[in-house]
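(Fold this chain)
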Amino acid sequence: MLTHLSINNFTLVEHLDLEIEPGMTAVTGETGAGKSIMLDALGLALGDRGDGDRVRAGTERADICAQFDLSKLPKAANWLKAQDFESAECLLRRVITSEGRSRGYINGQPATMSQLRELGNLLIDIHSQHEHQSLLRKDTHRLLVDDFGNHHSLTASVAEQHQAWAATHARANQLREQSADYQQKVQLLTFQVEELDALGLQPGEIDALEEEQKLLASAEDSLNLSQQLAELCGGEDQSLENLLGHALHLLNNLPHKSASLTEAQEMLTGAEIQVREASSAINNHLNSTEINPERLREVDDRLSTIYQTARKHRVNPEELPDLYQRLSDQLADLTGDDNQLEALEAKEGQLKTTLLTSAKKLSAKRKTAAAKLAKAVNQQLKQLAMANACVEIALQAEEVTSHGLESVEFLISTNPGASPKPLAKVASGGELSRVSLAIVVVTAQTSKVPTMVFDEVDVGIGGATADVVGSLLRTLGDAGQVICVTHLGQVAAKAHHHLQVVKAQNKKTTTSQLKALHEEEKVAEIARMIGGSESAQSLAHAKEMLEKA
């Protein structure tokens, strides 16, 4: 629980060191004295948003420290250990400069605002005077039921499972919406791949076919000219081979040859060899070449098919093998998407089943918790002068969401026989405030956090009802620690401890001070609260109220 609060240069407070005792502590003071400053400072230590305007005028920074005893807070102690802030006690510190810069500390180590808030939720429950406004929202109703039933782990599981299912459902829907277009793409790619596969174009085939086409197309002319070349090189009579042979014969018969003639003989000998080889090559060509119109048509048709296919796909003929590979890869990817859709749909079904199982379990627990909460709230309303009021908690089935299978709504009838209707349509401001207080008191009884703060939750209440409210808060204080900012003497009289906020002014500054009241001071303060002045009658009444507490 909260044991010590230190405030320096925060709004109207120059310096304050306050020991906080177990039980119920009332915080009172005249209007405008700054009763909520203590709670505002505490909120900053717990991670609330702060700015430079909260720093006391003329100073550089505000410094707030809150110390807690963790002996009854094992969750908070475990959290500190997990975050490496472990200590026997817990010290939260918040520093805000006049320029608006802010720093947080846990047990002397720097901490983020998120860490302060997360730890703060394990240390204190704060109920403000504006909570009854949030009671008009269905989301608040659901949270109240789940908090009362301690459904936190189950609601977290449902939210996580819904997120996983929703992500898979969205992806599957995306693939399903693409299904028609997908089928068209698959059909087109399948046709194109099959067409190119049937074409079976091989690397280098086009060059080979074009060369063969040229040879086949010119075969007749090639044979005629090659025959003439053969006769010229190796025929009878005046062929090159015979003439070279005759020349070499003449050289061989010379009795003496000069160096030039010897060189000439060598060259003619080489020429004779080259002519003989050329003649052999020409004869090979003549033997291997034939006029084949049928093969020429086959080559022409093959090239024509290749060229037409290339034009259809708007690529060069040489690029057809690469195109075939790209289209095959695309088809494989689309086939993979089809398999992915099947896998996603299977996963979607599994996640939906798991989600519905958890959501149905949550629904059953909510039904039980809602009945218990409504019964407890109605019992409190009778003590708060609303004996004819009856609160019901309706669970309305809907499609599964991250919050479960139903919406939760508080309904109320304020007169016997009247049908229950939503709070916003039935309850007046005062009635709504009392309903809110009844819910706060009931849910606070099930809270595992020993420190509860109430900031003027008794607004709109007076008379005997205020006396009941004070008794309820004192009962909560008997089991833990309650800090209550109140303007009602009947409530303050029930407190175990009493703190008074006093505003002091001079020509230069205004300050707020907080002091613990002794018995006579309590009497005077409560007399002021119930009568507006310290008359003999109000003092006697105040003393009587304290004695009855």
Observations:
- The CA atoms of residues 143 and 408 lie 9 Å apart.
- The chain has a mean pLDDT of 86.
- Residues 320-383 form the longest helix (64 residues).
- The radius of gyration is 50 Å.
